Task: structure prediction
Amino acid sequence: MNVTEEIKRGAGKEKNQSGDYLIRAITGDRQIRAIAVKTTGLVEKARQIHRTSPLASAALGRALSGALMVASFLKSGKEISLTFQGDGPLKRVVAEADLNGNVRGYVKNSGANLPMDQEGKLAVSRGIGRGTLIVRKDLGLKEPYEGQVPLISGEIGEDLTYYFTKSEQTPSSVGVGVLVNADLSIAAAGGFLIQLFPEAEEQAISRLENNIKAIKSVSSLIEQGMSPEELLTEVLKGLKFRIMESKEVQYSCRCSRERVAALLAGLDPEEINQMLKEQGRVEVGCHFCDKSYEFSREEIEKLELGSDN
Ligand SMILES: [Zn+2]
Result:
């Protein structure tokens, strides 16, 4: 592991401020593995960066929580991205996470709102609409792995459950939730992910199914003050488990001037010339953290020289 990178990551962390963390557990008989995460602080941070509507906060918060849990299955240092591409007013929800507990994301139309659904909940399903869930995993190979499944509900948790079952042939259950305060800040966010190992027995499976059925809303459990440990105690009721790992998670963007410059090199030169003509400079904003990068005419010329060599 690169030490400088570690320090950089550490500098971006807001330790102990948010209290967000993720735990990984396994049942005593090794039939089930489970993850739970509390993301209230980082979803609030995402809300402030993207100025999301309550509907967009809920969708993004669920996706961020899901991405962190999916990423915790990865091997060292790699990352995953989840893209919920739908025909609803939110248009697209993206979340990227790595094994170190860093996550970032955005909603294409972050101001979109819809009336509450019949149960008085935020209408995430309709907000995302019909479409596709795209899962990309950078496993350090030349080409990243990419899997796609149709969205079955647009609720995010159900869509991830379907993805694991259909695309990775791993029976899973994903529950994610976000509760928004009246002042639009985030009251609670988090989730759980349960996976069955091939040797899981019928008895454990049906107990798990009953437990999950009994949980109406993950948000409400977190809102009751439940920690990730307590959340798993609820989901894995009647099953013995031990916690293998506990780690802090945080909203963190890894964009940099160098990465943006590399993106510019891939753009149509005509487009860049147009921007230079109109504004005398090129300005590129990061989707994930709203940071803006400016390149002068001289810098652009230097970059183009670099790409010719
Ligand atoms: Zn950024």
